[in-house]
Write a structure and sequence with these properties.
189 residues, alpha+beta, 4 strands, Nuclear Transport Factor 2, Chain: A, four-stranded antiparallel beta sheet
């Protein structure tokens, strides 16, 4: 009987160990979850990947307001073309720094293309004509970027993570490696 109790106790410890191990993400898994959430527009999931310091600076509602991808169609057309590869993670104690190669549409080129062909001076004065003009032009660009390949670029970006009591969290959402094109902060001042 004592052997059966001991065997059940050991079995229980193995179950607890494996269940706990399954809920504790590595730094790479935590970063991957965060990036997938941001890219897919799941702001609430992205928020919960942030460190407690970042969450203390901004409420969930404020984070959602400032980081929402907006119109689902546009987010789907553009966001569906973003990919990333976590190239390297350096872990030192409770801190980690990750190098990520992000391939995404060349947003600057796209915006330049749109504004070059959609000058404010060319928009008709009459409301209904302006509505038709703007909708046609925006539809044209959505069709163009769905039909043709989006102009793409790959950038290297750095993320900082911190291990908290409940696992790895994003400490700084993105540190732009390119000083002339810094990434916008995900947290409002």
């Amino acid at each position: 009987m004592l052997a059966l109790v001991a065997l059940l106790f050991i079995f229980f410890l193995f179950i607890v160990y494996f269940v706990n191990k399954g809920t504790t993400l590595t730094a790479q898994e935590a970063l991957t979850n965060y990036l997938h959430a941001v890219i897919s527009g799941r702001t609430e999931a992205a928020y919960y990947c942030l460190s407690s310091v970042n969450k203390a600076k901004q409420s969930l509602q404020d984070y959602k307001s400032s980081n929402s991808l907006g119109n689902g169609l546009i987010a789907q057309v553009i966001g569906g073309n973003i990919s990333f590869v976590v190239e390297n993670i350096d872990v030192t104690g409770d801190r980690a720094t990750a190098a990520v190669a992000m391939t995404a549409p060349d947003f600057r080129l796209m915006i330049h293309d749109i504004f070059q062909n959609l000058a404010a001076a060319g928009i008709p004065e009459q409301t209904l004509e302006a509505l038709t003009f703007v909708c046609r032009h925006i539809s044209h660009f959505l069709d163009k970027y769905q039909r043709d390949n989006l102009p793409m670029q790959t950038t290297k970006e750095t993320f900082s993570l911190i291990r908290e009591s409940d696992g790895w969290r994003i400490d700084s959402p993105c540190l732009g490696d390119d000083d002339r094109n810094p990434s916008p902060p995900l947290l409002s001042p």
